[in-house]
Amino acid sequence: AGVSTQSTGMNYFITEMQMSKASVSFPRCLGPETVAVSHTMLRDLIHTLWNDSKSSGALRYDVAESCTRMIEGKHKYCLDWNEHRFANKRPSHKIHSIHQPFDADAFNFNKLKDREVLCGISLSDESECVSVSMGTSKSLLVINDSPISEHHILLLPSPKDCSNQTLSKDAIEMGLSFLISLGDPDTRVVFNSLRAFASINHLHLHAYQCKEVLPVESCAVEHLAGCCYTLQDYPVPGFVFQLETDTIQLAQVDFPSTQINR
Asked: 114: how many CB neighbours lie within 10 A of its CB?
């Protein structure tokens, strides 16, 4: 049975989770006007599970030794110094193509140690708040053993499906719904593809904390079509999609090439 985080204390959740891996469910359809009622509880829950995993020895290094500073200049880039992530992280796959198939023989997230798995996650079509149950879930929230920041986690959409690191509509929807349910302005959910420094060819998204405003979050944009905009006066070209209705619609945005070719 689901247990609403609105009415139950953190001590109960953690005690129950230590007995068995739990599943955290958050609303699927969230628009910008929706008030997620369990922001603080969800953040506390994830932070507690992350800290417990860290205490069990799941991390490859102490992320507290890293440092961050902003670089003066036009774009004010955010520089993160973390020598351990370069030297001690899990060996990367050899990537030859952005469409490289999943390799079951290489390391993948179905081979994680139990201490690296924080909880199951799922999207709910019925609930309007975050809930916790003691069942299993197809998707997982796991610790990143080579973190960029404290509480750096990975969202794994249905890892047993053995999908390669190619962004899917389900992954977009899960990432957006999780971010909105978390309600933390310092948390970013990001996806990096193969040949763009993704080290493991198994579908995943990162969620990490950064208190600085990143250049891509403050640069000018130009409206293109619908909820799609293009970056302006930025070192690389890019698209911006504005969440106007709900996560499902945004995840399903598909612009014909004639609309975006200029």
From this structure: 9
- Full DSSP string of 69-134: EEPPSSS--EEEE-HHHHHHSPPPP----TTPPP-TTS--GGG--GGGEEEEEEEESS-SS-EEES
pLDDT, residue 30, reads 56
Q: Which two tokens stand for residue 92?
A: 């990367």
* Rounded CA separation 176/179 (Å): 5
- HSE, CB side, 13 Å, CA atoms: give it for residue 179: 23
Contact 120, 174 (CB under 8 A): no
Residues 6+ apart with CB under 8 A from 237: 230, 231
Answer whether 207's CB lies under 8 Å from 179's CB. Answer: yes
Cα separation values, 260 from 92, 228, 234, 248, Å? 34, 9, 18, 21
Residue 173 has pLDDT above 60, yes or no: yes
Of 17-31, 77-91, 114-128, 206-220, the poorest mean pLDDT is in 17-31
* Residue 39, CA atoms < 13 Å, CB-side half-sphere: 10
Structure pTM?
Answer: 0.84
Residue 229: predicted pLDDT = 93
Q: Are 234 and 221 in contact (CB under 8 A)?
A: no
Task: Please say whether the beta carbons of 236 and 126 come within 8 A.
Answer: no
Q: 200: which DSSP letter?
A: S
Q: Which residues are catalytic?
A: 204
Q: What is the pLDDT of residues 112-149, one digit of tens each?
A: 999 999 999 998 877 667 777 777 789 999 999 999 88
